[in-house]
């Protein structure tokens, strides 16, 4: 993807939650994908010159920065093989960090959610955030979703490239600019947000999941599907027998790659517009 309008690249902090060291998933993925997974690199490949991506591997012991707004323009929280409610130290630390990141906005947020005035009276921009899969679920847990919660899907895991249905809000949202009403994206999840969250505007749904894309306000958007991950990685996991696509339509296809690149371009364009 080309740089956005000749402006400087968006400085993205990518919080990776994949493949906790010492776990079976780490061993299997390293064997199946010839060297392991690196979702920040996937995102950087999708973004091209439009972003400079700095990874933080919290499942490998990396710490989260105390003041990300001093260094970065935006944050991405990636997916995970874990549940958003698992009792993991790194997951508890992430939830606390996200609460602080959100809570720093205070009540003085401007109408467009871009800046707030803190105690010293200085206006500071709220860092935009994109949550992906487990990151989508983590934002839901942190911000609260009314009666909705993150639970296993009643229909079983969703693995494959599937169409989503944009809501009325989604069809006009910057994240889905240029998409038709039923774009196809890569899914790989067994948990989901089980009801339409009251804390967010739902942008997309599927027949089996009521909130696969959400706008939480203050520039925090999230997707249950994977715009960053290549179909080749998912296909390798299928070949290795680690995940099983629901035939006949659940095969990972290039359509999800193309949609993922466009969605990331849309997100980066939105971030760049408020820099």
Poorly predicted runs of 5 or more residues: 1-6, 105-123
What order do the strands of the largest sheet run in, or round the barrel if closed? 2-1-3-6-14-13-12-9
Mean pLDDT: 83
* Helix and strand pattern: EHHEEHEEEHEEEHEEEEEHH
State the helicity in percent bands.
Answer: 25-40%
Distance between the termini: 19 Å
Helical segment count: 7
Helix vs. strand class:
alpha/beta
Question: Gyration radius, to the nearest Å?
Answer: 18 Å
Sum up the overall morphology in one term. globular
Count of DSSP strands = 14
Main sheet properties? 8 strands, mixed
What are the main properties of this structure?
275 residues, alpha/beta, 8-stranded mixed beta sheet, 7 helices, 14 strands, 24% strand, globular, disordered N terminus
Mind explaining what this structure looks like?
With about 280 residues, this protein is α/β, with parallel strands linked by helices. Helix content is about 30%, strand content about 25%. It is built from 7 helices and 14 strands. The chain has helices spanning about 25-30, 40-45, 90-105, 135-145, 170, 230-240, 255-275, and strands at about 10-15, 50-55, 75, 115, 125, 130, 150, 160-165, 165, 185-190, 190-195, 200-205, 210-215, 220-225. The strands form 4 sheets. An 8-stranded mixed sheet has the order 2-1-3-6-14-13-12-9, sandwiched between helices.
